[in-house]
Amino acid sequence: MSNNTPIRSKSSDLIKKILQLVIFLGLGIFFIWLSVKDLTPEDIEIIKSSAAGILNSKSMLFIFISMVCGIFAHYFRALRNILLIDPLGYQVRKTTAFYSVMTCYLANLAIPRLGEVLRCTFLQRYDKIPFQKSIGTVVVERAFDFLIFLLLFILIVFFNRGLISELEISNQFVEWINDKWSLLWSLKYIVLCVMIGFVLIFLFFNHSSKKKFNKISEFIKRMMKGLWQGLISIIDLKHPYLFIIYTIAIWVFYFLGTYSCMYAFDFLQHLGPMPAFIVLVVGSIGFMIAQGGLGAYPLFVAGILVLYGVNYAQGLAAGWIGWCAQTLMILLVGFASLIFASFLKIEDRCTN
């Protein structure tokens, strides 16, 4: 029985990864379908002309600047991770930290959450950071980033309370909202039935479900306690102010990347910093719920831009080009990081 346990565990992990991939990729495909299902031939021509409109040196320069800003954001994320590992008694090289971050994002394009594991494995291989210790810092980072996202989301709601009443919202926006919302509202019953079906299947085939539910509950409690302790531990860092500065720098470069990308399009150049800020925050939700933001990010970007009077087809084109630029950056820098990392000297960096 014990000999079969590792095999069963590996099989369970494989099934879990496949399910994650199917669900997240399926969501991406769903959002793609949702965004294009009502496009007319005229809309398609607008998308083509909008995409072709960036094929000039000025627009391509802004796209390139957007990609560079993304690289800087990831670099500051690597520096922030070094701060979290330092109190554990280990030192991480800046190059190793940056390569691990880019490898993480590259892997997440393939399988959701795989990057976090590979990132810690990467640090363990090249700078001898124990996996159990580095994974804790990743959890702290994710928790802190989520809190920052919530704060930014609250800020855009607070500072744009009068947006609906102040703007002359076109009928196109009202129709777009009604169409997308009505479809999502009708799908809620299907989603509910699927969820109930999964629960019933789980209860039917698993006689020890109550015990497993208790284990899940205990796991969630331990995880929440660990997250809280991790967030509190930020205060005990040697340079807590640097942690805050790096975090601000991450979001500043995210914003600059979004804003510069908007300048690549003639029909978006008149928009100010606030629309770019809203696009950044709301667009981030797309990366949270779909595989690499596939489908969801362009759709959310188009929705925000329509709110500011931009044609939906033009907004969709801008969203897809922005998504492609950042995805291309992750692919190029991620694979380059894997190549350059192979030349790194493997050494023990423990300071104890």
Strand content: under 5%
> What is the general shape?
globular
SSE pattern: HHHHHHHHHHHHH
Q: Tally of extended strands?
A: 0
What share of residues is helical?
over 70%
Distance between the termini: 41 Å
Biggest sheet: strands, sense, closure? Answer: none
Individual helix count = 13
What is Rg? Answer: 22 Å
Derived from helix and strand composition plus strand pairing, the structural class reads mainly alpha
The pLDDT mean sits at 79
Note down, in words, how this protein is organized.
This protein has 352 residues and is mainly alpha-helical. It has a domain at 51-189 and 242-341. Helix content is 80%, strand content 0%. The chain has 13 helices and no strands. Helix 3 crosses helix 13 (312-341) and helix 5 crosses helix 6 (131-159). The longest helix is centred in the middle third of the chain and has 35 residues, at 171-205. Mean pLDDT is 79; it is low at 164-173, 185-191 and 348-352.
Brief account:
The protein is mainly α and about 350 residues long. The chain is about 80% helix and about 0% strand.
Summary keywords:
mainly alpha; globular; 352 residues
Helix and strand layout, with pairings?
Elements: H1 4-36, H2 41-52, H3 57-85, H4 94-110, H5 114-127, H6 131-159, H7 163-166, H8 171-205, H9 209-233, H10 240-262, H11 273-289, H12 296-307, H13 312-341
